[in-house]
Amino acid sequence: MPAKQVLIVEDERPIREMIAFGLRRAGFEVREAEDCRSARLQLADRRPDVLLVDWMLPDMSGLELTRALKRDRDTRELPIILLTARAEESDRVAGLEGGADDYITKPFSPRELVARINAVLRRVSGGDGEERVEFDGLVLDRASHRVTVGDRTVPLGPTEYRMLEFFMTHPERVYSREQLLDRIWGGSVYIEERTIDVHIRRLRKALEAFGYDRFIQTVRGAGYRFSARTG
Ligand code: CA
Questions:
Q1: Domain ranges of the chain
Q2: Distance 20 CA to ligand 1 centre (A)
Q3: Pairing of strands 102-105, 80-84
Q4: Residues 6+ apart with CB under 8 A from 38
Q5: How far is the CA of 154 from the centre of ligand 1 (A)?
Q6: In what side-by-side order are the strands of the sheet with 216-219?
Q7: Radius of gyration of the chain (CA)
Q8: Second CATH level (architecture) for the domain 132-226
Q9: Which range is most confident: 64-73, 79-88, 117-126?
Q10: Fewer CB atoms near the end CB (10 Å): N or C, the chain?
Q11: Cβ atoms of 92 and 99 closer than 8 Å
């Protein structure tokens, strides 16, 4: 398998080089950009497997770059991890809601970064080795299409299963009803957006008996989010 390629967008050279060093040692192919403009040029040239974007950049913020790339059809699927020195909850939420696939707060160890990158890569490939997805004791087994908590099976219909699978493999991000329709049912099917609410209700009800209904969070005016964090 060819080495996975990471593009680091960070203006502070010592930090960028330190990250690059750690990632190369972990077997990644690394490219570097010192600002958003250079990042976009490099993206047009060759698509990396993951983008690491620092929040504070000279020409535009990492969050703005993330938003722009996630709005663009060509780069929408590109996994983005935001690097941030800001630890405040509101910034993390802004980062994830801006479309970042994950965020990591400085300072971080190379090992932690590698673990996060691998997790994001597994999530997007949706395959190899990722047969089992687990969240806080809630286990989804993709081979058997079963969801379990300990030795008990969570009874789910096929649509609720698909919905939960989508949520568990795309946690911490808010999806609108339209996006959920698109991602879970596929864009070609005509289904009313209200249908989503029905399935959400059923999914919550099934999870309620196990205490996991709180993971399916309603974000007022925006949609739904799957999160093991509270609030
Ligand atoms: Ca910076």
A1: 5-125, 132-226
A2: 15
A3: parallel
A4: 9
A5: 45
A6: 174-175, 223-226, 216-219
A7: 19
A8: Orthogonal Bundle (1.10)
A9: 64-73
A10: N
A11: no
Quote the ligand 1 centre to 12 CA distance (angstroms). 5
Is pLDDT above 80 for 132? yes
Contact 170, 162 (CB under 8 A): no
Identity of the amino acid at 164: L
Tokens of 224: 């739904």
Quote the ligand 1 centre to 59 CA distance (angstroms): 11
Higher-confidence residue of 76 and 208: namely: 208
- 177: part of which helix (H) or strand (E)? helix 177-180
Per-residue model confidence (pLDDT) at position 230: 64
Distance 31 CA to ligand 1 centre (A): 16
90 CA → ligand 1 middle, Å: 19
Distance 124 CA to ligand 1 centre (A): 26
Enter the tokens of residue 162: 């698909």
CB atoms closer than 10 angstroms to residue 188? 6
Interval between CA 36 and ligand 1 midpoint (Å): 11
Distance from the alpha carbon of residue 8 to the mean position of ligand 1, in angstroms: 11
Instruction: Give the domain 5-125 fold.
Output: Rossmann fold (3.40.50)
Mapped onto helix, strand or coil, the DSSP state of residue 27 is coil
